[in-house]
Please model this.
Amino acid sequence: MISDLTLLAPWQRVQLARHKERPHTTDYIRLLCEDFFELHGDRRYGDDRAIVAGLASIDGCALMLIGHEKGRDLCEMQERNYGMAHPEGYRKALRLLQQAERLHIPVVTLIDTPGAFPGLEDEQRGIAQAIAENLQVMSHLRMPIVSIIIGEGGSGGALALAVADRVLMMEHAIYTVAAPEAAASILWRDKAHVASAAAAMKITAPELLQLGLIDDIIEEPAGGAHQDQRAAAAAVKKALFTHLAALSQLSLDMLVERRNQRYRAVGAFDEGA
Model:
């Protein structure tokens, strides 16, 4: 049972999703995995510390775990670029997605990023292509994929790890095409309208579940996941295995077909409008 989701305004959820003590990918790895062997590099340019990825074992289940990592203190946040991945981060993820398919193990992605990094050098190194390649490969990957939005799910930087059979959200996470601050600047020419933008954009877990863009909401401890990281991790583990068990009943052909149909069906329009 989800706690009362009507008490917090969308902008309050944005602030919870960004809380500095909120558990990150490395925290979930520490709390969930008996073993985790981190893998590095995209074999083209270098390694990106904004993406943590490797082989994991949870309750004896082998899987490929890939996630954004923002870092904790200032030094680590700078090293990890505040969770905003470069092209090599998404290419590292791509390499390991393909490795998971060869090893016949499911993929779990943990999403927590304001978005892909928009720097000039990133554009020169092909960040748009790197994201597009991930979308294409994930849409046809012949293994189950479960994506969990644990904090911020920002724009294409989040979507590059979220083409999945099941998309889950933590209760106070957000998933959005643009930051509320950016939307307020575009629509109202004034960041003072950020709360209105957050409400208009439908970026919270309950709203996205109602729209059919996500599959489940993972309940957080009272006050948010940062109040009890172990309880939050336990809830993630329970939801993860529930959905992996359901996906394991499908053939790989059916899995890929349903995944493709899922994303082809996103969106709605009224011809009479």
